[in-house]
Amino acid sequence: METALIILTDGLVYASWLFLISAGLTLIYGVLRILNLAHGSLYALGAYAAASVVLVYFDRGLWPLGSYLALLGAALVVGAVAGPLIERGLLRWIYGRDPVYQLLATYALFLILEDLMKLVWGVNPYYAYKPYGLLGIVQLGGIPYPGYSFLLLGVALLAGGSLYLFIHSTRIGRLVVAMIHDPEISAAMGVNVPRVSLLTFTLGAVLAALGGAFTAPMISVVPGLSVEVIVLAFAVVVIGGLGSLEGSAAGALLVGLVRSLMVHRIPALELFAIYLVMAMVLLLRPHGLFGMEEVRRV
């Protein structure tokens, strides 16, 4: 029983981390129809910015619990600055182009951002661990867990709930849904497509940076952080279905639980199990668990 509880808890915490990253990726694809290979770099930018802010924050002896607001602020700033710059500066020139051009352009952006982060932060690791220990240890069924893990779970639930309400309960959200279904008809009906595209990409960038910011206290922030993240994020959105936020949540939960089970039972198969699940889902449902078949325009 205790082992099952550990597996479930670890799986939920890992799934919350995956959801924060993959939700932005699938939202961007759903509206803009672009597979953004630089999405992992936005995650890494959020992690680096958050680590830098937290280190300065504690050096000045400020209120410790306020560091969580500092993490949130760093993520919002990264998303609000990097999102519009990338969307206006690059992506708007490649909308509707062949997917190969889009992949090459976003891959080039990924390489540029990787080198830019090395120029700004160097190649040495950043350790912003202090927020991780502030919440102490939580006893769950007699098993000690760091309280910060549940904060990450809460951030994912809050972000997912807010995103759901934004999409389904606001006028702008309904415009986003309309563009997901048919951007050409939406434009013909008077929707300001460039503005909605900018808002969508910025929101996706904020989600990626949010995942990086709240992960920073749990890891050492080092160059190359974005590579593993983007691979896992693609696995999640492919399993859930490209463009489906519900699929992103389901894919993150499935991957989180499978990965946790393998870590505790057969550690050597941790990554293999994730991609085995992806292969099996694609064999049974080529468009993912919640994905819909798209009509290809020629």
How would you describe this protein?
- This protein is mostly helical.
- The chain has one domain: Orthogonal Bundle (ABC transporter involved in vitamin B12 uptake, BtuC).
- The protein is built from twelve helices and two strands.
- It has helices at residues 2-32, 39-59, 67-89, 99-121, 130-133, 147-169, 171-181, 183-188, 193-215, 225-240, 245-265, 270-284; strands spanning 137-140, 143-146.
- The chain has a two-stranded antiparallel sheet.
- The protein is globular and about 60 Å long.
- The protein starts with a helix and ends in a 14-residue tail after the last helix.
- The mean pLDDT is 88.
Principal-axes geometry comes out as globular
**In percent terms, what proportion of residues is strand?**
under 5%
Count of individual domains: 1
Low-confidence stretches: none
Main sheet strand line-up: 1-2
Briefly note the structural class of the backbone. mainly alpha
Radius of gyration: 19 Å
Helix residue percentage: over 70%
Let me know the average pLDDT.
88
Distinctive features:
12 helices; globular; 298 residues; mainly alpha; ABC transporter involved in vitamin B12 uptake, BtuC
Secondary structure elements and pairings:
Elements: H1 2-32, H2 39-59, H3 67-89, H4 99-121, H5 130-133, E1 137-140, E2 143-146, H6 147-169, H7 171-181, H8 183-188, H9 193-215, H10 225-240, H11 245-265, H12 270-284
Helix pairs in contact: 1-6, 1-9, 1-10, 1-11, 2-3, 2-4, 2-9, 2-10, 3-9, 6-7, 7-9, 10-11, 10-12, 11-12
